[in-house]
What we know:
Shape: globular
Largest sheet: none
Helix content: 55-70%
Radius of gyration: 11 Å
Amino acid sequence: MPASGLRRDELVSIAAWDEGPEAFKNMWSVLVAEAARRHGWADISDQAISACTSILYR
């Protein structure tokens, strides 16, 4: 996700991962949100972090 050549559509696809325990999905949401923030894609970042159900991570 931190790759400089990452495209928006690739990150959106990565963000759609919805398998595994809720704890993993929450961590995944945070990682995707941070990657999007670093690329300057605030809309994707906001969407990813809104999928996180952990108050501690938000």
